[in-house]
């Protein structure tokens, strides 16, 4: 069971999301992401959105999890790229919770869907799904979208994987604090994994302080490293 704490709700605090302008951007591998011009921040890597997601979240997250039934918590659903790739590459049953307090507006979704070649119908359906209701999008792939920020998210259900795909510390430092890493640690099952594209030293130290065993792994194109944290058994 999950809940939102109204007194803590901070949907209007995000510096990035005060600027609603989004520009669709073709990245170096031909896949698409959005650029937020006001802060010069992108949803995924300009060097290759799909390549980044495949490397960080699929190869070093989903495929490293050996369970037959996997529960995934994503922080920052964004375009839905990680959701689609997880559905396509799952080996068993997946239960996916996607936190996205600032979902793409209809115009941006339509622009994205009309531009992509892969996953067009999946992404269209994903963004049209209601919030706070688990839906079986494909056989063995269940998803629940939640319009809530991480700091306000509570759940009695633990996850096996956390995809931490939030905007970076430069523009959203509050998402990378020790408090948020502590929260992620508590949201994982023992042996569960936290994976992120971000490899900044402060983030690594916060993960370690929260109790994670932290690995610095080779990064996707354009980045030297990424981080994976494992909750101790």
Report on this model:
- This protein is an alpha/beta fold and 233 residues long.
- It has a single domain (49-105, 116-230), classed as 3-Layer(aba) Sandwich (Rossmann fold), CATH 3.40.50.
- The chain has 6 helices and 13 strands.
- It has an 8-stranded mixed β-sheet, sandwiched between helices.
- A hairpin with a 6-residue loop joins strand 12 and strand 13 (225-230).
- Helix 1 (49-59) crosses helix 2 and helix 3 (106-115) runs antiparallel to helix 4 (120-128).
- The longest helix has 11 residues, at 49-59.
- The two termini are 23 Å apart.
- 38% of the residues are buried.
Which properties best describe this structure?
6 helices, disordered N terminus, globular, Rossmann fold, single chain
Q: Could you state the order of secondary-structure elements as H and E?
A: EEEEHEHEHHEEEEHEHEE
- Name given to the CATH architecture: 3-Layer(aba) Sandwich
CATH superfamily: Vaccinia Virus protein VP39
Give the percentage of residues in beta strands: 25-35%
Task: State the end-to-end CA separation.
Answer: 23 Å
Q: Largest sheet at a glance?
A: 8 strands, mixed
Instruction: Using the coordinates shown, work out and report the CATH topology.
Output: Rossmann fold
């Amino acid at each position: 069971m999950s809940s939102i704490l109204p007194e803590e709700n901070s949907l209007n605090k995000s510096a990035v999301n005060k600027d609603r302008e989004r520009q669709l951007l073709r990245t170096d591998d031909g896949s698409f992401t959005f650029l937020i011009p006001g802060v010069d921040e992108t949803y995924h890597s300009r060097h290759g959105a799909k390549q980044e997601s495949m490397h960080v979240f699929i190869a070093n997250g989903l495929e490293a999890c050996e369970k037959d039934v996997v529960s995934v918590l994503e922080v920052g659903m964004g375009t839905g790229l990680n959701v689609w790739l997880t559905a396509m590459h799952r080996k068993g049953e997946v239960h996916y919770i996607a936190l996205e307090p600032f979902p793409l507006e209809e115009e941006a979704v339509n622009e994205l869907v009309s531009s992509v070649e892969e996953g067009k119908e999946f992404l269209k359906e994903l963004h049209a799904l209601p919030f706070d209701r688990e839906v079986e999008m494909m056989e063995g792939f269940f998803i629940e979208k939640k319009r809530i920020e991480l700091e306000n998210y509570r759940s009695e259900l633990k996850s096996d994987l956390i995809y931490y795909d939030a905007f970076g510390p430069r523009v959203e430092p509050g998402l990378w604090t020790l408090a948020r890493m502590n929260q992620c640690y508590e949201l994982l099952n023992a042996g569960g994994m936290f994976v992120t594209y971000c490899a900044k030293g402060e983030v690594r130290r916060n993960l370690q302080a929260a109790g994670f065993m932290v690995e610095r792994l080779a990064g996707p194109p354009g980045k030297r490293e990424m981080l994976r944290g494992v909750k101790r058994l």
